[in-house]
Design brief:
The protein is an all-alpha fold and 88 residues long. The protein has a domain of 59 residues. The chain is elongated, with a radius of gyration of 29 Å. The N and C termini lie far apart (69 Å).
């Protein structure tokens, strides 16, 4: 057997294996999509949060966030300066 034949068999085996993997992925995604079909119902849109409502216990939340950041960063809490804090 020649070296070119051996290299060709190796490369062919790899590409045939990759082709099988791609085909299996396509088949499995088709099966998963078939089982995930749910009846489409009209959902009411979520009510938007009004920006005028103030954040309750704002100072306590800022203190807790500052303490968590200081602990994570390994610094003193006095080194943390929060310039802006808004509800998402």
């Amino acid at each position: 057997m020649s070296n070119i034949f051996i290299v060709g068999m190796g490369v062919g085996t790899v590409f045939i294996g990759l082709l099988c993997i791609v085909l299996l992925c396509l088949i499995m995604s088709a099966i998963c999509r078939a089982f995930e079909r749910k009846p489409k119902t009209a959902e009411a849109p979520a009510a938007p949060v009004s920006p005028e409502k103030p954040i309750e216990n704002r100072q306590e939340i800022i203190a807790a966030v500052s303490a968590a950041l200081a602990e994570e960063m390994g610094t003193d809490i006095s080194a943390i300066r929060i310039h802006s804090f808004k509800k998402i």
